[in-house]
Specification:
With 307 residues, the chain is mainly beta. It has three domains: 5-134, Sandwich (Immunoglobulin-like); 137-214, Immunoglobulin-like; 219-305, Sandwich (Immunoglobulin-like), CATH 2.60.40.10. Helix content is 8%, strand content 54%. The chain is built from one helix and 29 strands. It has one helix at residues 5-30; strands at 31-35, 40-42, 48-57, 68-73, 76-79, 81-82, 89-95, 102-115, 118-125, 129-134, 137-141, 145-147, 151-157, 164-167, 170-171, 173-178, 181-185, 193-201, 204-214, 219-221, 225-228, 232-238, 248-250, 252-254, 260-261, 265-267, 273-280, 284-291, 297-305. The strands form seven sheets. Strands 2, 4, 5, 8, 9 and 10 form a six-stranded mixed β-sheet that branches. It has a five-stranded mixed β-sheet with strand order 12-19-18-14-15, with no helix packed on it. The chain has a four-stranded antiparallel β-sheet with strand order 1-3-7-6. A hairpin with a 5-residue loop joins strand 28 and strand 29. The longest helix has 26 residues, at 5-30. It starts with a helix and ends with a strand.
Length: 307
């Protein structure tokens, strides 16, 4: 009988492929490889990043001590070391070359199984993974609640003077401290509510956390101002509790800006009150407004008459 050589070759290749496929499947069934490394890694000055793998045996015939994980980065094979944190964890400290902000890698695990007193080698590997180095990130809010006007710090990396902190879609008065720190003043929004906080800039928006605005009361003395053009009068603002670190900003506005000349009002940290001097301008009648206190807005009537 005549045998087609091409058909025979195909059968042999099919058989070899099936055997390899079963071997690979057996390897995947024997151990589970779990990458514990996030896809985004915060930048650090040393440019060294820890890559972590968990290897979980699924069968009892794996030879103890035979599991040898390694990581392949840019085509180079690096052995991984057992972590002291937990059994089955392996780590590799990779120093990223200068000018790079991304790395591609996969894991390869060699191990042996025992069958009829024979040790059989196996391997398992993961898919190619990409990790991005993040040059800009937010670590945390200094605190997660406070009254209107409180100054709060935000810690992170990669901040710029153009960054603005938002409560929902409301921008706050934001202060650039350094590339690693910003601060903002809690805006005059409704109290007793939680607000999502976001960092916004030309580089995009980043969630910061959640902040709760607490209720607070405030008293003003005198409760109304009556002046002649060119006169000055002191105005004292008192809060029930000492101002937090960074001070307490009282965002005072007016509907008669040409009639009232006054400085920014900030209760110093650790104090309960601040006194400012108000100078009258052009004749007019209106009010000073301070949101976020009492029933939602504190109103101080202002009357300026001509000399």
């Amino acid at each position: 009988m005549h045998i087609n050589r091409i058909s025979l070759a195909r059968k042999i290749l099919f058989g070899v492929g099936a055997t390899l496929g079963l071997a690979l499947l057996s390897g995947c069934d024997s151990v589970v490889l779990t990458n514990l490394t996030p896809n985004s890694l915060p930048e650090n000055p040393s440019q060294i990043y820890t890559i972590t793998l968990r290897v979980t045996p699924k069968i009892d015939t794996i030879v103890p001590g035979s599991i040898k994980p390694s990581i392949i980065i840019d085509g180079k094979n690096y052995p991984m070391t057992a972590s002291t944190l937990a059994e089955g964890l392996y780590e590799f400290e990779y120093q990223l070359p200068a000018g790079r902000d991304e790395l591609a890698y996969y894991f390869l695990v060699n191990y042996e199984t025992e069958n009829n007193n024979m040790h059989n080698p196996h391997d398992a590997y993961t898919e190619l993974t990409h990790a991005k180095i993040v040059h800009r990130y937010v670590l945390a809010l200094e605190v997660n609640r406070g009254p209107v006007g409180a100054r709060v710090s935000v810690l992170g990396r990669g901040f710029t003077p153009q960054d603005i902190i938002y409560f929902d879609n409301t921008p706050t008065r934001t202060v650039y401290e350094s590339p690693n720190a910003l601060s903002f003043f809690v805006p005059a929004l409704d109290a007793s509510r939680n607000y999502p906080v976001m960092l916004g800039s030309a580089a995009g928006n980043s969630p910061v956390g959640t902040f709760r605005i607490d209720t607070s009361s405030l008293s003003v003395s005198p409760s109304a101002l009556t002046l002649r053009t060119g006169e000055k009068q002191t105005l004292t603002f008192t809060v029930p509790n000492a101002a937090p670190p960074g001070g307490l900003l009282l965002d005072v506005t007016t509907d008669v800006p040409e009639s009232v000349i006054m400085p920014e009002v900030v209760v110093p940290a650790g104090q309960n009150s601040v006194t400012i001097t108000v100078e009258s301008g052009k004749p007019g009648t209106g009010s000073l407004f301070l949101k976020g206190y009492g029933a939602g807005e504190l109103t101080i009537p202002v009357t300026v008459t001509a000399k």
